[in-house]
Amino acid sequence: MAGASKSILLRGGRVLIFDSEKNATFPTLDILVEDTIISKIAPLVAVGPNTQVIDATGKIVCPGFVDSHRHLFQSHIRTSVANQTLLEYCGHLLLGRVTFYKPHDVYLAQLGAATEAIHCGVTTVLDHSHIQLSEEHIAQCIKASIESGIRSIYCFAPYGLPESINPLKFSDKPHELHQQQLDLFYKLSEQSPLGSSKNDGRLTLGIGYDGIEYRPVEDTKKLLEFAHGRKYPITFHDCHRHGMSAMKFLQENNLLSDTMVLSHFNFPSEEDFAAAKAHGVGISSTPESEMQMSHGWPEAFPAMRYGCKTGLGVDSSAICSGDLFAAMRICLQTQRARDNHELASRNKIPKRLRATVDQVLYMATLGGAEAIHLDSEIGSIEVRKRADIVVISTDSPCMVAASDPAAALVLHASPSDVESVIVNGEMVKENGKLLKVDWPKLKHELVENMKELEARWKGVDWSWNTDELAEAWYMTDKLE
């Protein structure tokens, strides 16, 4: 049934509910959705004939997955950086291919990316978006986000994209360019709702702000105070190894706040953990990309153990898989390897595993909502929360006869098991079919659009672009 239903009943599913110790339980329950919220949860809920009833018997019903750090528009260039470092990713993609995008390319890329997320059971994304090529590019990005049906925080990210490549040339007036982009952000902040009247509240505004170490402190304070005053989430890349030390700068200038999200957060000190916990800063770990891009070991479990708000993200599905099943699995098993290695270094054998499936499942749901400061609205199946819900089939050869639903979700499930998805009370995927887009049509458009893009950047020497970028960033002597 396409479009929003006035009421939906999920009948008899095994519903994921966390206890106070973050242990996953799966009681058999009915869930009634009315308009945009969860209105009733009980062993048996009676409804009238106008309610859409979905038989969830034997299926797993869980909160929609929350991706706390993703660059949505990049998914259209998937596989382009599969064997590349962060520097190469910047030279080939972020400060390379992206510069060829026209507004309609951004629209298709964003719509395809959000559709991918929904297909995978991700209902909320903190979208760190630095495709600020023009006001029309931004408008098309927002338009696609609204049309997709996903819940998203559009974190507008001012970014100094190059004016040309081969040779690489940046603006000789970077501060003017930065201010022009900030003016566009302030202009967006005046829109209510963001984008158009078609936005029912699922798309909200935030800001992605990198390079704060290189900007005047007073200008940064002014922007952060504005965003904090409006309760806009503020996200930063925090990658010490790559010259993005947001946490260090924020601590030194007393700018930390409980609306902030730090992505990656690799190589944190004890002081960093303490500051994040004390100020309520969210931490987003993207295990799959972090290990490829030489950020460092994923710090999700250490952050959770310290008491920080901790979520998971894909980062970019140009780099890796676009689902949180893979992120959970890699995060969990990597931490188990680290824990076991520490014991082995002392000639010890583990008595039990410290990192559990329940903990990483929490990160992908309620933990992610906490990390992006939306846990009062989403992240768990509770009465009066927004109805963002996923139904997982247990009929596939990979899932059948699983005795532990949490372990099944983390270690065995895949996007193909995501049967139905509800966002804000609207059915956006049902019985495996996407309802917000004409997928065969969009698929064709994405394929044809990629052919156009490849023709535009044909002949570009990406290695030259990467080498010039290494020189511009004073990295040449560090490369090996």
Secondary-structure arrangement, i.e. CATH architecture of the largest domain: Alpha-Beta Barrel
User: What oligomeric state best describes the polypeptide chains here?
Assistant: single chain
Number of individual domains = 2
User: What do we call the CATH homologous superfamily of the largest domain?
Assistant: Metal-dependent hydrolases
How much strand content do the residues show? 15-25%
Q: Which structural class do you get from the secondary structure elements?
A: alpha/beta
Shape: globular
Number of strands: 20
* End-to-end C-alpha gap: 55 Å
Might you state the CATH topology name of the largest domain?
A: TIM Barrel
Instruction: Indicate the percent of residues in helices.
Output: 25-40%
Major sheet, described briefly? 9 strands, mixed
Q: Quick check: average pLDDT?
A: 95
InterPro entries: Amidohydro-rel (IPR006680), Metal-dep_hydrolase_composite (IPR011059), Metal_Hydrolase (IPR032466), MTA/SAH_deaminase (IPR050287)
Pfam families: Amidohydro_1
Protein name: Amidohydrolase-related domain-containing protein
Keywords: Hydrolase
Keywords:
single chain, 480 residues, alpha/beta, Urease, subunit C, domain 1, TIM Barrel, nine-stranded mixed sheet, 15 helices, 35% helix, globular, Amidohydrolase-related domain-containing protein, hydrolase activity, acting on carbon-nitrogen (but not peptide) bonds, MTA/SAH_deaminase
